[in-house]
Amino acid sequence: MTSSAPAPVWIDCSASGRYRFHEDHPFHPIRLRLTEDLLYACGALSPGQIVSAESNDVDETLERIHRSDYLDAVKELSTPVPSPDAVALAARYGFEPDGDTPYFAGMHEAAAAVVGGSLAAAEAVMTGRASHALHLGGGLHHAFPDRSSGFCVYNDAAAAISWINWRYGAKVLYIDTDVHHGDGVQWCFYADPEAFTFSIHETGKFLFPGTGFANERGTNSGYGACLNVPVEPYTEDDSWLECFTASLTRILRSFKPDVIVSQHGCDAHAFDPLAHVHCSMRVYREIPKIVHRLAHEWTEGRWVALGGGGYDHWNVVPRAWSLLWLEMTDHPMLRDIDSSPNGGELPKDWPRIASDRRPRELPRTWLDDTGRWTPIPRRAEIEAKNRQVLEVALQHLG
Ligand SMILES: [Zn+2]
Ligand SMILES: [Zn+2]
To answer: How far apart are the first and last CA of the chain?
Structure first.
């Protein structure tokens, strides 16, 4: 009998799909359904690639990341009718009925399922059962040890990193390309030399959560194991990719990780309604390609990829996340995408999901026709500013 090389796995998102605030909330599980629908329409996702999102270590890992009073509060606020005492304390733990992160019935179970999916992805890769693993239900990078924040209840990304450190003593490089600073993950490992957190995002001068400046570099023995590149609003593909690749090259040389955990929020796209960076779908073709190459060069292929933000549910998220999976699986379709104008055609029959929120016009190609976009008037100024910030950010790296 010959043993075959491990293949990439897709972590089942059906349990984490229950992580849902309300119908009008931007963090809506339709993002996952539309992505799966696009991949099935391409014949690029098959049942044999899908593995269960379960892990035996969820409770123990949650206790390593989150404070016990916070876990108790989340559980109490998850009941159909939370006690008046729990409701009175909700705001202290980051939950407000009309805020970004309202509590909902079943919240603990749903958020724990998200953590389970990201742990299952980490387990698949660290045991060698899979070369790479993708959990698009995960990437909730804003959750803090003692409070929810920015749509995030439990920090599954931090949980996966902590689990890898704890079970394998392995060094983790966390790469966060969401347009918002990966603050929750950063603060969890700020003093930890074994977990390097890298976040490239729109500057906190203008965008939530208001942190992630170039001078945030870690503390104590974790000093130098944190890198932030805050880019200007209206940054476009070339400048964004220049900052991203220059940073990663330096990080890998100095940190030499054992495994990469990446967060793939796709809200840096120009269409995203919640931020002001002006990238096109091209960066969502390039990011996975770069991370994939680096994983094979530096970490023997060990790569755990997670979802994240992305609020243009129909135009952006399904294409961006499908391109990620196509790259992870070395799908032959990428040859056409890379050689066709605008990435070639999407399947004619996609999307096959009925919704009264479906926009009348949907993209017909994998990449955007940016030639039709209005040029950004301050391009040169923005690029120069980003280079300056990059230089400051990289000063302390070897
Ligand atoms: Zn985001
Ligand atoms: Zn590979």
So the answer is: 46
Inform me whether the pLDDT recorded for 1 exceeds 50. no
Give catalytic status of residue 28 as yes or no.
no
pTM (2 decimals)?
0.98
What pLDDT is attached to residue 5?
A: 80
What's the token pair of residue 23?
Answer: 């119908």
Q: What is the pLDDT of residue 330?
A: 98
Helix (H) or strand (E) holding 259: strand 259-263
- Please give the distance, rounded to the nearest whole angstrom, from the Cα atom of residue 264 to the centre of ligand 2: 17
Query: In terms of residues, how long is the chain?
Result: 398
- 238-276 residue pLDDT tens: 999 999 999 999 999 999 999 999 999 999 999 999 999
The count of other CB atoms within 10 Å of the CB of residue 292 is 21
Considering the candidates 142, 181, 269, 331, report the single residue annotated as catalytic.
142
Domains in the chain with CATH codes = 9-396 (3.40.800.20)
Burial (CB count within 10 angstroms: exposed 0-12, middle 13-18, buried 19+), residue 65:
buried
Which of 202, 135, 201 has its CA nearest to residue 163? 135
Ligand (nearest to CA of 331): 2
Gap between the Cα atoms of 224 and 211, Å rounded: 17
Q: How far is the CA of 368 from the centre of ligand 2 (A)?
A: 26
Reference 175, options 166, 167, 185; nearest CA is 185
Chain mean pLDDT for the chain? 96
